[in-house]
């Protein structure tokens, strides 16, 4: 389920970015980049159909301290 793994990695990276954890954000977002580069696979769950490279590359949250 590459699509699910890419979606979770992307969202986890965004959470870390919002929390100000740059290292973890880069790690998870990089993993999502790699998964997306390999393709989302043939069996994308219906609930994840919206997720693609455009969604992944959308605005990044910033930490507010």
Describe the structure.
- It is a single chain.
- The chain has 65 residues and is mainly α.
- Helices cover 58% and strands 0% of the residues.
- The protein contains 3 helices and no strands.
- The protein has helices at residues 2-18, 22-38, 53-56.
- The longest helix is centred in the N-terminal third of the chain and has 17 residues, at 2-18.
- The N and C termini lie far apart (36 Å).
What's the layout of helices and strands?
Blueprint: H1 2-18, H2 22-38, H3 53-56
Briefly say what this structure is.
With 65 residues, the protein is mostly helical. It is built from three helices and no strands.
Q: What is the share of helical residues?
A: 55-70%
Instruction: Tally the helices.
Output: 3
Report the portion of residues in β strands. under 5%
Largest sheet: none
Q: If you average the pLDDT, what whole number results?
A: 86
Termini separation: 36 Å
Q: Count the E strands.
A: 0
Unreliable parts: none
Specify the structural class. mainly alpha
Task: Provide tags for this entry.
single chain
């Amino acid at each position: 389920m590459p699509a699910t793994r890419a979606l979770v990695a992307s969202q986890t990276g965004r959470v870390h970015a919002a929390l100000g954890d740059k290292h973890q954000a880069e790690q998870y977002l990089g993993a999502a980049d790699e998964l997306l580069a390999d393709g989302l696979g043939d069996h994308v769950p219906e609930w994840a159909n919206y997720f693609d490279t455009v969604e992944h590359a959308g605005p990044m949250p910033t930490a507010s301290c």
